Amino acid sequence: MKNLRITFNKFWLYTFFTTGLLFSCKGAGEYQFVPPFAKFDITPFLVVTNSAESLAFESNENYNDNLFGLISPSTISRWSFNWQNQKPSGVNGNLVIIQLTNSAPSGDFINHNGRDVFTYLIQSPDSVFNDSRDDNVLLLNQVVTTGQKIDNFLAVYAIDPLSDFVLFAPDSSSPANLASATKAYYTLRYWGFPKERVGLLNGSVQHYGKNGLNSFFTLNSPSARTSGRSNTTRRLLTDNTILQITLGDIFHILRGGNSQVEEPSSLPTLGAFFLDGRSATSFNGTQSSTNSSSLHQTCTTQLGGSCRVNHEGTIKGSSNLDNTSLYNSTSLSFHSKATLRSLLNALPYSDGKVIINFHRDGVTGSINQFITQNVLGKPSRLYEGGFVQWGALGLRDPQALTQPAALWRTDLSNFTDNLTTNVTANVANFGFTTVRQFTRNTNGIRKTDKEYIRSSLKSQSTGGGGGGASGPSGGGGNACGG
């Protein structure tokens, strides 16, 4: 026993020693002085996996008091003019502002200085923050993008996830721009960014720049690109993939845990609350109200240039909270916290339940997700498949499911309320193979992302140094002698 105890203690001493070397040196791949036999990857053991409950937080009643999450225009003005002295405690890096637009740019850019405040414009944000990905049942679009693409985004805009504060802002007052901004926020949180270093402007840049606060100063051009200062989200050592709920997770909940689903998330202790953010028209199952995704547009007859899903309705037991009721359509600013709280309180929600947000797709669904999780502080998850997936899973040969016993049928009253079938000629051909109809695992996306988060850091550089006017990047002397 004594020898066993000594061996055990040596193991932990060795682990702490190598861990210290790994993170005190320039990069995980640069500790050449460690003997070859001592080099092993401990990354998977260091990752912290968060719950929906731990990721939720409440906004202050007065949005002007927020230092992360929903950020007021007056706070951004104060930060952009004097970031060095005004940045929140614990934030050591730059302020990087990302304006997002799905149409012509407004031409207004939040104040920046090229030293520690940078403002960039991303047109077509779907190409950066969303992707077409396969959950083993259906190829989906507008789903959270891959870890590699997010790391590429960090590199392009010289963002260090270990020190910088990233603020997303709708460029002009388009609901699509708001949805893109909330989805971008969700994406960084999903990939491990701490809540203290991610924010969302409460309103559009164009509205405040032209019609809003005199102190909200805008320029007519974005920052010049800088370089040499980035990092990988893997160094955050954080797994927030619980934010996404899969098709299998939902089936597991609706079946009370008695499902054939493989590797489902644990059932919420206090239960789940399904929140449909679509219009009342869609929620009530009005025929032909849901377009199929852009990946599935082959049908006999398109309506208004688009095919339709197999059936309409809403996920069983859902309540309806149209996301357009959450914000001012002119400014894109969210209503007061008191108003938002009253909207949720009007629904049969019991405190402590995990809110399952969904909409047509993952982008539009992210608006409600942002409010319930980051303003009202309720544990929340986002069904990114949305009704474009749920409404596709009906029996209709050959367009949709072809097997009556398919595991993923939602065209049944115990899975869908307000069920209405669409006209066959308008229904897209979804190309379900027999394998897809009977797979028991819908974790294709989540599994890939968990593996990326835990993959080896040995080949990764910390991205320190360089970057000209980029600001702090974790410099200092090299204690490892390199």
Set out the fold topology:
Elements: H1 2-24, H2 43-46, E1 48-49, H3 52-55, E2 69-71, H4 73-81, H5 83-86, E3 95-101, E4 109-110, E5 117-123, H6 126-129, E6 130-134, E7 139-144, H7 147-156, E8 165-170, H8 175-190, E9 198-201, H9 205-211, E10 218-219, E11 238-239, H10 247-254, E12 272-276, H11 280-283, E13 311-315, E14 319-320, H12 337-345, E15 354-358, H13 362-374, E16 380-382, H14 386-390, E17 416-421, H15 434-438, H16 444-454
Parallel strand pairs: 1-11, 2-9, 3-5, 3-8, 8-9, 12-14, 12-15, 15-16
Antiparallel strand pairs: 4-10, 6-7, 13-17
Helix pairs in contact: 8-13
Shape: globular
The total count of strands amounts to 17
Number of helices: 16
Assembly status: single chain
> For the residues shown, what is the average pLDDT?
88
Low-confidence stretches: 1-14, 21-32, 461-482
Alpha-carbon distance between the two ends = 41 Å
DSSP helix fraction: 25-40%
Strand order of the largest sheet: 2-9-8-3-5
Structural class: alpha/beta
Radius of gyration: 24 Å
Strand content: 5-15%
Major pleated sheet: 5 strands, parallel
